[in-house]
Amino acid sequence: MKNEYLKQLLKIELSYFSITLIKLIVIISIFFANNTILKTQWKECNNGLVGKTISCFLVDSNNTFTSTNEGGVFSTTNNGDYWIAKNNGLNRTLMGPSVSSLTINGNNMFAGTISDGIFLSTNKGDSWERKSNGLPYFVINGGFDTVFKYSINTILLDGINIFTGTYNGVYLSTNNGDNWIARNNGLPKFDSLKRDILSLASNGNNIYAGTRFGVYFSSDNGEIWIPKNNGMQNMAIFSLLIKGGNIYATACFNGIYISTNNGNEWNTIVRKDTCIDNFLIKDKYFFASGGFYISSDNGVNWIKHESGLPSIVVRPLIINGDYIFAGVNNYGIYRAKLSDLGITDVKETEQTSGIKIFPNPASNEFRLRFHTPTETTVQLSVFDLLGNCVLSQALLSTEGTNEKTINCEKLPQGYYYVKININEIVETIPMAIVK
User: Fold this and answer.
1) Fewest beta carbons within 10 Å, which of 131, 179, 222, 271?
2) Which helix (H) or strand (E) holds 123?
């Protein structure tokens, strides 16, 4: 009787153990399944692309543009589910449409190439026209075509001024790319011939150039450049970004630097042995490529988010709506939902306004140049150093680039701040008045 009881008890214990083991297996399976889903943050989106070396990205409303070294320009309106080639007019030489940089202002989109000069599209890339007069070139094919000497690394649109950074300095166009003139006085030479310009950025009347030897600055449309390298001498600056009055610069294997005083001093915000290729700021979040990292505390701490990426060699980045896109070296484009990366509170992509005031210093009047994506009202306010509003105007603007003349003859000589509000995008520019 006792033995029979022990047998029944043992059966119950074994049955309980089996059920518990099954539950444990199910829980572990669910855990690993969910963990796999969470880890697969990035997904390939190369359908329609030609080439797997991604040069750059560009966002215009719901259009996301990209370029490859092998295939030219492509666009998508469905978050990268399919890409459409936008190369009509770009296939000019035997080198093919090797597009290295893209930028847009209103209806004008510019594409810089590796050896084919600069092209302009006024219809979102449906057709392109070469705009390279003044850029150095070689004649080829018996004089029927040209190969340009210097790769177009970056293009900056600043009102009617268009700056391009090449492997031999900065070039400026003031007539929509019809003519280009060199603007290299003061820029350092990489060797006896080259002045490598790797990045450009602007803030009001100030233009910043990232070179092989740090950051250089111009306040007169590139007539004269002066070094702004205190704290970061002799570093190759691959990207420049201006946000909220701060200037950020990335230097490969030297990390990310910040200046809070117009480039006069630089401080490190990321460890110096980190190779940062590209850098984005979206609301409170910092994004950095090299691998792929996110910081939510101004760069103090970084979290790696590389699951699903086929390589850690990540280069260009762009955000459009709910997605972030990454160009992965030799693997094309991968995308991730911001919410899958733990980001749920980012705002829509900001519009660039291209605000500029000139002349500065002013006397009896100054001109305000800016860009608006639609017809709107722009609020201009001028403050003295005590914070008193001494001049206020509401300016009606049309879609595209606008230029307004502001009468300031009643203002006494001194220093002022001009605050411009365009569709809740606010910029403040210092200005002097001399009599």
Assistant:
1) 271
2) none
14/135 same-domain check: no
Kindly report, residue by residue over 199-248, the tens digit of the pLDDT: 999 887 789 999 988 999 999 999 999 999 898 877 889 999 988 778 99
This prediction has a pTM of: 0.71
- Same domain assignment for residues 29 and 48: no
pLDDT in tens, 345-397: 655 444 445 688 888 888 899 999 888 877 788 889 898 877 788 999 989 88
351 is a domain residue: no
Spell 197-236 as b/e; 16+ CB within 10 A means b. Answer: bbbbbbbbbbbbbbbbbbbbbbeebbeebebbbebbeebb
pLDDT band per the 50, 70, 90 thresholds, residue 34: very low
* 155 shares a domain with 240: yes
Instruction: Count other C-beta atoms under 10 Å from residue 345's C-beta.
Output: 9
Does residue 28 fall inside a structural domain?
A: yes
The tokens for 378 are 């722009």
Q: Please report whether residue 95 resides in a domain.
A: yes
Q: What are phi and psi of 383, to 5 degrees?
A: -120, 145
* CA-to-CA separations, 279 to 132, 185, 270, 299, 309, in angstroms, rounded: 29, 28, 12, 11, 18
- In this structure, are 148 and 245 located in the same domain? yes
Question: How much is the mean pLDDT over the chain?
Answer: 83
Cβ neighbour number for residue 53 with a 10 Å cutoff? 17
